[in-house]
Amino acid sequence: MYLCTPKMNLIIDIGNTRTKLVAFQDGTPTEECIAEGSDLGGLADFVKKYPFKAAILCSTVDLGTAAEQHLAALPCPLLRFTPATPTPLQNRYRSPQTLGSDRLAAAVGAWTLRPGRNLLIIDAGSCITFDLVTADGAYLGGNISPGLHARLRAIDDYFPRLPLVEAEGPTPELGYDTETAIRAGVIEGMRHEIEGYIRHFNVKYDGLLVFLTGGDQLNFDKTIKSAIFADHFMVPRGLDAILAYNMQ
User: Fold this and answer.
1) Whole-number pLDDT of residue 1
2) Which one of 86, 167, 179, 240 counts the least CB within 10 Å of its CB?
């Protein structure tokens, strides 16, 4: 059991495929619990481990009755992160009500780590998102493209003679059979796409810092010839900062 602290926050991050529960103490992640889908069955046990003072929920899916019941039983105040929630950034997205809350949270997380710099945040998850924050703290927006598994499934769906290939396996420079040709084509295509965005925005924004997060990073931070900071907790880190910002 942790000693009581006034800055113990609970982060609930529900994405398209997984749910993350993260405990933050004084702005630092201390424990993470991951479940498939939008299952909050482990929330009660996770909450018992820490003296949380506040919680924040970020969800990209609609929650069912069971999930809402788990949230209602929380022993601390809950902030639901929506497009209307104040953040430390100026949101210049033209349709903020349609902006994915996880994208904005990741942008805030990067800004928390490197304020006052031009930032490119790349989130390689179900989709790959590219979002830009300027040195004066303005979120300009970004682009969305299919993620790793969506690309692999699309090949199988649209081309009946081509198989569904697993993401794990050899990725030679040139595929030596159909399986490696598809896998290498998809993964190397993603790599070149990411490198292209980095080159493009490096020209436009001085001193650009690049942050990479998401479940399908595939060691891009180690293989791409650019300065990249990898942070698994980018979205939860941003949510923790947004919660603190709204509690002030």
Assistant:
1) 42
2) 86
